[in-house]
Amino acid sequence: MSRPVSRLFHAVVVVGASLGGCSHNAPASETPESDVPEPAAVTPEPAAAEASEETADAGVDAGEAAEPATGASNACPPGSERPFPPCYWIL
Amino acid sequence: MSHPRTNATHELPSGDTLVDALPDSLRAAIAKHWTRRVTSELQVSRAFAALVPRLRALQADTTVVSMMERAATEEIAHAELCLHLAEVYAGAPVTMPDVPFAMPHFGFDDERLEVALHVTGLCCVNETLATAYLERCLSLARAPVAVAANRMHLREEIDHARLGWAHLSSRAVTPDLREQLSTCVPRLLAANVPLWEREDAFLPSEGVPDHGLPSHEDACRTARAATRDLVIPGFRHVGIEVRADAFAG
């Protein structure tokens, strides 16, 4: 899997699945690439939406800042507003 | 049928020197391309809108229902965005087309499965492929109006794809439903992926990359790669077993 597709996988599938986990239990993760950030290594930044105006890649990185929690009932990033936490904005 | 306007402000440029530099015939072709996309955006909007009460009746995850409701409105805004682009490239007003629409029926008696199939086809397959396609369009685009439009479109399309994965990962989709979906997904892929591989009826096959319109070959390659590396692994990620060669074309 190329890096852009891997990032998109994380931004779309992993983050999407974690939204279902906001209210309920998400199934166990199978992330196909290891080059996505670990949950503990990223901090959701509302300002990511502004920073993301620069490039598409930067935008997807901003999306990755969203919590990629899998299988956890507390999947939403701390302080985020459900159901559309600002940190889920991509570009 | 007429369509409600969102009154959304897209803040896109009303002109573009790179557009002005194009030959008239190519401008007309791109305008037709965007007018066609108005229709597809409105069809998706109506499908999303039709699913909202059905998801609610099934007591789907509230996050999913809210996202679906919002997506229906955003797709109308996308249609307006496409109409704006059509007008920029045409250099003249373009009429919002009428849109034929009928919600398909998969033929199952189980409403949970029917709805799950719609969400899967619309969001996990179609909108997810759209994110890869739009990301490719955005990476190619140089014309400011095309850059702005693709960026805006991609941002919201990612949420529309996510809501599908959110639904499939929620408790609304039970283990028996997951099993049924795993047998249906290859058919959904067979129905949808070839649509991404059709030649555009108006654009030259080499596309217009500076205007965010990839060549036919590039678009096919993007759709195939996204099916293989994004969509099929996505199903496995949410516990729906789909073979890697589920769509061989």
Q: What characterizes the major β-sheet of chain A?
A: none
How many angstroms does the end-to-end distance of chain A come to?
A: 22 Å
Note the beta-strand portion of chain B: under 5%
Q: What is the succession of H and E elements of chain B?
A: HHHHHHH
Task: Give the overall form of chain A.
Answer: globular
- Which stretches of chain B of 5+ consecutive residues score pLDDT under 50? none
Q: Tell me the distance between the termini of chain B.
A: 35 Å
Query: How many distinct folded domains of chain A?
Result: 1
Number of helices of chain A: 3
**What's the multimeric state?**
heterodimer
The helical percent of chain A reads: 25-40%
Roughly what is the average pLDDT of chain A, rounded to an integer? 47
Class from helix and strand fractions of chain A: mainly alpha
Mean of pLDDT of chain B: 90
Rg on CA atoms of chain A, Å: 12 Å
Determine the fraction of residues in helical runs of chain B and give it as a percent range: 55-70%
Which CATH class of chain B applies here? Mainly Alpha
Principal-axis shape of chain B equals globular
Structural commentary:
The complex is a heterodimer of chains A (91) and B (249). Chain A has 91 residues and is mainly α. Chain A is built from three helices and no strands. Chain A has one domain (3-88). In chain A, helix 1 runs parallel beside helix 3. Chain A is globular and about 35 Å long. Mean pLDDT of chain A is 47; it is low at 23-91. By secondary structure, chain B is mainly alpha-helical. In chain B, helix 4 crosses helix 6. Chain B is globular, with a radius of gyration of 18 Å. Chain B has seven helices and no strands. Chain B has a single domain, classed as Ferritin, core subunit, four-helix bundle (Ferritin), CATH 1.20.1260. Chains A and B meet through helix 1 and helix 3 of A and helix 3, helix 4, helix 5 and helix 7 of B.
